[in-house]
Amino acid sequence: xxxxxxxxxxxxxxxxxxxxxxxxxxxxxxxLWRFLRIECDLDDVVSEPSDDDIYDLLGAFVDNRKDTLxxxxxxxxxxxxxxxxxxxxxxxxxxxxxxLHKESPEKATAYFYELSNRSAYIRMDRVKxxxxxxxxxxxxDLDITINLSKPEKSPKEIAMMKEAKPSVYPKCLLCxxxxxxxxxxxxPARQNHRLVKMNLAGEDWYFQYxxxxxxxxxxxxxxxxxRNMKIDKNTFVRLCDFVDLLPHYFVGSNADxxxxxxxxxxxxxYQAGNYEMPMMRAREVSKYNTSRYPMVDISVLEWPxxxxxxxxxxxxxxxxxxxxxxxxxxxxxxxxxxxxSHTDQRHNTVTPIMRMKNGxxxxxxxxxxxxxxxxxxxGLFHPHEEHHHIKRxxxxxxxxxxxAVLPGRLVAETNQLMDxxxxxxxxxxxxxxxSPDLIKxxxxxxxxxxxxxxxxxxxxxxxxxxxxxxxxxxxxxxxxSGVFKENYKGVLxxxxxxxxx
Length: 501
Description:
The protein has helices spanning 3-16, 25-36, 54-63, 72-84, 90-103, 105-118, 124-127, 155-163, 233-245, 315-330, 397-400, 409-424, 442-447, 449-453, 459-481, 488-498, and strands at residues 131-137, 140-146, 196-200, 203-209, 219-223, 250-252, 269-273, 284-288, 297-301, 307-312, 348-357, 360-369, 403-406.
């Protein structure tokens, strides 16, 4: 299909999906023609309504350029540029978002989320490739996701990345300068990316959606300034401000120390979404009030990590108590649990998560410590080595709440090992010795040997069995990350002795 017809289809898509209005068609057509370097008599152009899937339509443009668009980053940039021509300016999006917000916060986020989808900024064609299931755990259901949505680099692209100079603009993937940025071999294209500006604790912050959706309406909230992550009293103020603006969303921050934090510690940011995480459904093993903070309910969760939950309709009391817990925790040590707050550096911090429920603020504080030891060089309160074949990455904000984001390699690896198990009639010692991708799973599969024997003849049952076992491994990785493990007395001792509540 020639480019002229494809442009008309794209214009029709933009109108139907409210990315533009009929008054924009002439200008947008001209911009698309100029970008594609095409031109003709408009009377010769066949106008066709578009019922095409947007990703099929974008793919058709790429098919017409097979000789010039060969690398994934070039294709991404080309497609993002096409979609950017249809999109409103950032100022228009902000005006509409806040106008809808006056009607209801839900209408505002629904508008912006739909825009982020319809503009192909959120690549739902890739997100749908993720493999997800629910695993029944000791502490309740856990959400498991194997991430297949990020495109893999080709060998040529990997080689080019090694040769490319370090990117200095934007400074990181979370900087506001990403909006509209064309991308390069080391930095994704973001021409169709837009931001909503909001005020949090008197500062300019920005609201966007994640292009790689791990849960419903997965959003990112980022500081205008490129500055390091920092958890302090102002964090709790900002989280309250955010749920005041969008009370149907939760919002949380990764911890601000390596090993227990997220992958980006150099830009202050939060993650949010319209979703109830498994941790939020956890049972409370202790709940009480204190004379110092009578308006705040304090509880400890039955959860693999050590989590304190604060609930109150009194915002200021909740913030004051949260700050008390944070500052006390930073200095707290308990040798009974091998918990040391400082060596040559600080080790204690928290992973905070906030939501509104029934008109009250709920703040979850996961107690974290990032100390490394000779026995556990990756981290004492980090997934231990026996679980690294499944999960070796940091337990960040999303995992703390009970949603596993596991590496894409697991799909091919588990399929391959299941095929080998079926072919050999069960586990045999040494069967993975000559498979560099599977040898790391050997001890794990050996421990499951007897259970596997009964499932060899039922492919579906065997697959579900491994899903369950992967879920159990994730739960064990979470337990490793808990500072007091399953001993809730340790948390209560800290609250009573360390915080002087």
